[in-house]
Amino acid sequence: MGSQLLSTVERREVLPESYIRPESDRPRLAEVTTDSNVPLIDLASPDKQRVIAEIGLACRTYGFFQVINHGIEGELLEKMMAVGLQFFRLPPEEKEKLHSDEPSKKIRLSTSFNVRKETVHNWRDYLRLHCHPLEEFLPEWPSNPESFKEIVSEYCREVRRLGLRLLGMISLSLGLEEDYIEKALGEQEQHMAVNYYPQCPEPELTYGLPKHTDPNALTVLLQDPNVAGLQVLKDGGRWIAVNPRPNAFVINLGDQLQALSNGAYKSVWHRAVVNAAQERMSVASFLCPCNSAVISPAPGLVRDGDAPVYRSYTYDEYYSKFWSRNLDQEHCLELFRCAQLQLQ
Ligand code: OGA
Ligand code: NI
């Protein structure tokens, strides 16, 4: 018995009860603002030191930034979006072949977030794929649409290259060796979520994805160029909309970079809201530490006499904890915070 995919049912006029959030937990869309200072990093800028300083500032203050001139062709981004949408438009029986709500499955189509744990559902379907090493997973990927494997594998290779390049710059911005993070995280896995948010009859009552932080190291998000939906929580509890920019990626730091930076960089709370007028797509690529990697604050970032903020753990331990919870509970990293020293 599985959940029902939103993308296989007729368009609904009323939001089903199981998607309705309690009054205290609704998006309050009228209160969301846009922030014209959202950090925008031009990766082709010749002044590398300045780019690294900008990345550092963005990671400290916002926990995310957008990148442009990142070296990935706009045409590939368009193809990725188009083939993703084609996938969700396949006939129901075709999609049923991949339908599973079991989080440990490496290739699956599911809905909401974690239908087995959650009490209220989210207005989203998603295709989740493991993408590295590609040769290992490619045979299991959807072969319908016909061009899916070719387009998505090229996209994954390019995004991995960009992600690793960004991790190098993030390392430098922390004052660490360029390869520090890459080494600390081991041979990283790469997962992808192709998110499909159908038109929603009552967007004020539900979420596409509720407030969460990403459990991995770094997320490279491609947004639908025509439909807004990503929102990020700023200090002070204000939600800001991160509106799509042509050919840009949104980069957000995951929990592992917050741990590794000893809390200096933020794994930011974010959410996806839905709308009544249009469906929306996004493609999230997650770089994830190797399961056996031991995550702990970089020694250079724990000043003499300071205690590390988080205890060491393996990524395996972290990831199981993450999926055993509901998405919008407290920051998962809080469960790994070192006990405060007792005052004498
Ligand atoms: C995610 C995510 C945001 C979006 O998939 O983790 O935060 O805009 N997606 O779809
Ligand atoms: Ni996310």
From TrEMBL:
GO terms for biological process: defense response to oomycetes. InterPro entries: DIOX_N, IPNS-like_FE2OG_OXY, IPNS-like_sf, Oxoglu/Fe-dep_dioxygenase_dom, Plant_2OG-oxidoreductases. Residues 188-289 form the Fe2OG dioxygenase domain. Keywords: Dioxygenase, Iron, Metal-binding, Oxidoreductase. It comes from the Eukaryota. The keyword Cell division does not apply. The keyword Iron applies. Its cofactor is L-ascorbate. GO terms for molecular function: dioxygenase activity; metal ion binding. Belongs to the iron/ascorbate-dependent oxidoreductase family. This is Naringenin,2-oxoglutarate 3-dioxygenase-like. It comes from Panicum miliaceum (Proso millet).
